[in-house]
Amino acid sequence: MSEQDQMLTQRETIELHELLSIEVMAKKKLKTTKTTIQDYSELSSYVDDVINAKEQNVEELKQFISSNVLQ
Question: Distance (Å, rounded) from C-alpha 15 to C-alpha 53?
C-alpha cells in the first residue's frame, strides 16, 4: 500500500476532529459533574473510570490523527 493510500481524506480528517471535540467536551462535563457527586463513592469512582477512558480515547485519537495527517 502506498503512502498516499494511507493518508486521510479531508472529510475523514474533519470527522476525526469532530470526534475528538466530542470526547474532550464529554470529559470536561464529567469533570464538572464529579464535583457535585463527591459524597457518593461508587458513583464518583465510576465517573473517574469514565474520565480516564475519555482521556485515553483523546490521546489515541490525537496519535492517530497526527500519524495519518502529517505523513
Answer: 20
